[in-house]
Amino acid sequence: MWCYRGGSISAEPRINDRIRVPEVRLVGPSGEQVGIVPLAKALELAQEYDLDLVEVAANARPPVCKLMDYGKFKYESAMKAREARKNQAHTVIKEMKLRPKIDPHDYDTKKGHVVRFLKQGDKVKITIMFRGREQSRPELGYRLLQRLATDVEDLGFIESNPKQDGRNMIMVLGPHKKKTEAMAEAREAQAARKAEAKANPGRSQNAAEEGVAESAPAEAESAETPAEASAEA
Asked: Where is the sequence biased in composition, kind Basic and acidic residues (predicted)?
Protein backbone atom coordinates (compact mmCIF):
# COMPACT_ATOMS: atom_id res chain seq x y z
CA MET A 1 0.00 0.00 0.00
CA TRP A 2 1.41 3.37 -1.05
CA CYS A 3 1.73 5.98 1.67
CA TYR A 4 2.76 9.64 1.32
CA ARG A 5 5.27 10.50 4.05
CA GLY A 6 5.41 14.23 3.51
CA GLY A 7 8.26 16.33 2.21
CA SER A 8 8.43 18.96 -0.46
CA ILE A 9 7.54 18.28 -4.09
CA SER A 10 10.20 19.64 -6.42
CA ALA A 11 9.05 22.11 -9.08
CA GLU A 12 12.24 21.50 -11.08
CA PRO A 13 11.82 19.56 -14.34
CA ARG A 14 13.48 16.19 -14.69
CA ILE A 15 16.68 16.27 -16.71
CA ASN A 16 19.04 13.69 -18.24
CA ASP A 17 19.25 10.46 -16.21
CA ARG A 18 16.35 11.50 -13.95
CA ILE A 19 13.94 11.03 -16.86
CA ARG A 20 12.47 7.52 -16.51
CA VAL A 21 10.31 6.77 -19.56
CA PRO A 22 10.95 4.43 -22.46
CA GLU A 23 10.58 7.09 -25.17
CA VAL A 24 10.13 10.85 -25.53
CA ARG A 25 8.95 13.37 -28.09
CA LEU A 26 12.18 15.22 -28.74
CA VAL A 27 12.61 18.91 -29.60
CA GLY A 28 16.00 19.98 -30.93
CA PRO A 29 18.13 22.86 -29.57
CA SER A 30 16.72 25.28 -32.18
CA GLY A 31 13.12 24.28 -31.55
CA GLU A 32 12.89 21.84 -34.43
CA GLN A 33 10.74 18.74 -34.02
CA VAL A 34 12.90 15.58 -34.03
CA GLY A 35 10.00 13.23 -33.32
CA ILE A 36 9.41 10.33 -30.95
CA VAL A 37 12.68 8.60 -30.10
CA PRO A 38 13.83 6.11 -27.44
CA LEU A 39 15.14 7.73 -24.27
CA ALA A 40 18.58 6.24 -24.85
CA LYS A 41 18.76 7.89 -28.28
CA ALA A 42 17.67 11.25 -26.83
CA LEU A 43 20.37 11.06 -24.16
CA GLU A 44 22.93 10.15 -26.82
CA LEU A 45 21.97 13.22 -28.87
CA ALA A 46 22.24 15.40 -25.76
CA GLN A 47 25.83 14.20 -25.24
CA GLU A 48 26.68 14.86 -28.89
CA TYR A 49 25.40 18.45 -28.68
CA ASP A 50 26.94 18.89 -25.20
CA LEU A 51 23.50 19.88 -23.90
CA ASP A 52 20.97 18.64 -21.35
CA LEU A 53 17.84 16.64 -22.05
CA VAL A 54 15.09 18.53 -20.22
CA GLU A 55 11.52 17.29 -19.73
CA VAL A 56 9.33 20.30 -20.63
CA ALA A 57 5.89 18.60 -20.75
CA ALA A 58 5.77 15.69 -18.33
CA ASN A 59 2.02 15.06 -18.73
CA ALA A 60 2.16 14.58 -22.50
CA ARG A 61 2.12 11.06 -23.94
CA PRO A 62 4.94 10.51 -24.55
CA PRO A 63 6.57 13.30 -22.47
CA VAL A 64 8.08 16.17 -24.44
CA CYS A 65 11.80 16.76 -23.90
CA LYS A 66 14.07 19.44 -25.30
CA LEU A 67 17.79 19.70 -25.82
CA MET A 68 19.08 22.83 -24.09
CA ASP A 69 21.71 24.30 -21.80
CA TYR A 70 19.74 23.90 -18.58
CA GLY A 71 22.08 26.08 -16.49
CA LYS A 72 21.73 28.96 -18.95
CA PHE A 73 17.96 28.40 -19.13
CA LYS A 74 17.63 28.64 -15.33
CA TYR A 75 19.72 31.81 -15.21
CA GLU A 76 17.69 33.54 -17.93
CA SER A 77 14.42 32.49 -16.25
CA ALA A 78 15.60 33.92 -12.93
CA MET A 79 16.55 37.21 -14.60
CA LYS A 80 13.15 37.46 -16.31
CA ALA A 81 11.36 36.81 -13.02
CA ARG A 82 13.50 39.44 -11.30
CA GLU A 83 12.69 41.99 -14.01
CA ALA A 84 8.98 41.17 -13.73
CA ARG A 85 9.07 41.75 -9.96
CA LYS A 86 10.94 45.00 -10.52
CA ASN A 87 8.25 46.27 -12.89
CA GLN A 88 5.38 45.00 -10.79
CA ALA A 89 3.11 47.81 -9.65
CA HIS A 90 1.90 47.81 -6.05
CA THR A 91 -1.13 49.88 -5.18
CA VAL A 92 -0.18 52.30 -2.42
CA ILE A 93 -2.53 54.63 -0.58
CA LYS A 94 -0.86 57.75 0.74
CA GLU A 95 -2.56 59.90 3.37
CA MET A 96 -2.70 63.65 3.77
CA LYS A 97 -4.32 65.27 6.81
CA LEU A 98 -5.67 68.81 6.84
CA ARG A 99 -7.59 71.08 9.19
CA PRO A 100 -10.78 72.82 7.96
CA LYS A 101 -9.27 76.27 8.65
CA ILE A 102 -5.88 75.59 7.11
CA ASP A 103 -3.48 78.45 6.41
CA PRO A 104 -3.08 79.26 2.67
CA HIS A 105 0.67 78.53 2.78
CA ASP A 106 0.10 75.18 4.50
CA TYR A 107 -2.61 74.35 1.97
CA ASP A 108 -0.20 74.94 -0.91
CA THR A 109 2.38 72.72 0.77
CA LYS A 110 -0.11 69.88 1.33
CA LYS A 111 -1.42 70.24 -2.21
CA GLY A 112 2.14 69.91 -3.48
CA HIS A 113 2.46 66.57 -1.67
CA VAL A 114 -0.85 65.37 -3.16
CA VAL A 115 0.36 66.37 -6.64
CA ARG A 116 3.59 64.41 -6.12
CA PHE A 117 1.73 61.31 -4.95
CA LEU A 118 -0.68 61.38 -7.90
CA LYS A 119 2.18 61.83 -10.36
CA GLN A 120 3.76 58.70 -8.87
CA GLY A 121 0.54 56.80 -9.65
CA ASP A 122 -0.52 56.43 -6.00
CA LYS A 123 -3.94 56.95 -4.50
CA VAL A 124 -4.29 59.65 -1.85
CA LYS A 125 -6.58 59.53 1.16
CA ILE A 126 -7.44 63.08 2.24
CA THR A 127 -8.56 63.43 5.87
CA ILE A 128 -10.08 66.62 7.27
CA MET A 129 -9.75 66.65 11.08
CA PHE A 130 -12.41 68.51 13.05
CA ARG A 131 -11.79 69.66 16.61
CA GLY A 132 -14.12 71.20 19.16
CA ARG A 133 -16.77 73.43 17.62
CA GLU A 134 -15.49 72.67 14.14
CA GLN A 135 -17.48 69.46 14.27
CA SER A 136 -20.68 71.49 13.88
CA ARG A 137 -19.42 72.93 10.56
CA PRO A 138 -18.86 69.89 8.30
CA GLU A 139 -19.50 72.07 5.24
CA LEU A 140 -16.08 73.68 5.82
CA GLY A 141 -14.37 70.35 5.35
CA TYR A 142 -16.53 69.46 2.37
CA ARG A 143 -15.69 72.70 0.57
CA LEU A 144 -11.99 72.24 1.29
CA LEU A 145 -12.02 68.74 -0.16
CA GLN A 146 -13.87 69.90 -3.26
CA ARG A 147 -11.36 72.73 -3.69
CA LEU A 148 -8.43 70.33 -3.47
CA ALA A 149 -10.05 67.90 -5.92
CA THR A 150 -10.56 70.75 -8.39
CA ASP A 151 -6.97 71.96 -8.00
CA VAL A 152 -5.53 68.52 -8.89
CA GLU A 153 -8.18 67.38 -11.40
CA ASP A 154 -5.55 67.22 -14.18
CA LEU A 155 -3.71 64.51 -12.24
CA GLY A 156 -6.44 62.69 -10.31
CA PHE A 157 -10.14 62.14 -9.81
CA ILE A 158 -12.45 61.59 -6.84
CA GLU A 159 -12.51 57.83 -6.32
CA SER A 160 -14.43 57.99 -3.04
CA ASN A 161 -16.67 60.98 -2.33
CA PRO A 162 -16.28 62.90 0.95
CA LYS A 163 -17.93 61.17 3.89
CA GLN A 164 -18.01 61.78 7.62
CA ASP A 165 -16.14 59.32 9.82
CA GLY A 166 -16.47 60.34 13.45
CA ARG A 167 -14.51 63.57 13.92
CA ASN A 168 -12.97 63.28 10.46
CA MET A 169 -14.14 63.69 6.88
CA ILE A 170 -12.46 61.45 4.31
CA MET A 171 -12.09 61.54 0.54
CA VAL A 172 -9.95 59.33 -1.71
CA LEU A 173 -8.32 60.62 -4.90
CA GLY A 174 -7.22 58.21 -7.61
CA PRO A 175 -4.51 58.99 -10.19
CA HIS A 176 -5.31 59.25 -13.89
CA LYS A 177 -2.02 57.49 -14.66
CA LYS A 178 -1.53 53.85 -13.83
CA LYS A 179 1.31 52.95 -11.49
CA THR A 180 3.15 51.13 -14.28
CA GLU A 181 2.98 54.22 -16.52
CA ALA A 182 4.31 56.45 -13.74
CA MET A 183 7.16 54.01 -13.08
CA ALA A 184 8.03 53.88 -16.79
CA GLU A 185 8.11 57.68 -17.02
CA ALA A 186 10.29 57.88 -13.92
CA ARG A 187 12.77 55.41 -15.44
CA GLU A 188 12.83 57.38 -18.70
CA ALA A 189 13.46 60.63 -16.80
CA GLN A 190 16.26 58.98 -14.84
CA ALA A 191 17.84 57.67 -18.05
CA ALA A 192 17.61 61.16 -19.58
CA ARG A 193 19.31 62.68 -16.52
CA LYS A 194 22.11 60.12 -16.73
CA ALA A 195 22.60 60.84 -20.43
CA GLU A 196 22.72 64.58 -19.74
CA ALA A 197 25.15 64.04 -16.88
CA LYS A 198 27.41 62.04 -19.18
CA ALA A 199 27.27 64.73 -21.87
CA ASN A 200 27.73 67.68 -19.49
CA PRO A 201 29.53 66.42 -16.37
CA GLY A 202 30.24 69.87 -14.90
CA ARG A 203 26.75 71.34 -15.24
CA SER A 204 24.99 68.12 -14.26
CA GLN A 205 27.05 67.88 -11.07
CA ASN A 206 25.85 71.31 -9.97
CA ALA A 207 22.26 70.39 -10.84
CA ALA A 208 22.55 67.16 -8.90
CA GLU A 209 23.79 68.99 -5.82
CA GLU A 210 20.90 71.44 -6.05
CA GLY A 211 18.45 68.55 -6.52
CA VAL A 212 19.74 66.77 -3.42
CA ALA A 213 19.31 69.91 -1.35
CA GLU A 214 15.76 70.45 -2.63
CA SER A 215 14.65 66.83 -2.22
CA ALA A 216 15.97 66.41 1.33
CA PRO A 217 12.74 67.62 3.05
CA ALA A 218 10.59 65.44 0.80
CA GLU A 219 12.72 62.36 1.54
CA ALA A 220 12.49 63.00 5.26
CA GLU A 221 8.71 63.29 4.95
CA SER A 222 8.32 60.06 2.96
CA ALA A 223 10.61 58.11 5.31
CA GLU A 224 8.16 58.39 8.20
CA THR A 225 6.08 55.47 7.00
CA PRO A 226 7.08 53.18 4.11
CA ALA A 227 3.54 52.28 3.02
CA GLU A 228 1.63 55.37 4.05
CA ALA A 229 2.87 58.94 4.10
CA SER A 230 0.84 61.22 6.36
CA ALA A 231 1.07 64.84 7.36
CA GLU A 232 -1.01 66.87 9.76
CA ALA A 233 -1.96 70.45 9.19
From this structure: 180-197
Say what angle helices 201-222 and 179-199 make with each other, to 10 degrees.
150
- Angle of CA points 153, 156, 122, to nearest 5°: 155
Does the global pTM surpass 0.70? no
Both ends of the chain: CA-CA distance in Å? 71
Domains, the chain, with CATH or none: 16-69 (3.10.20.80), 93-175 (3.30.110.10)
Phi/psi of residue 80, nearest 5 degrees? -65, -40
Nearest Cα residue to 102 out of 150, 137, 140: 140
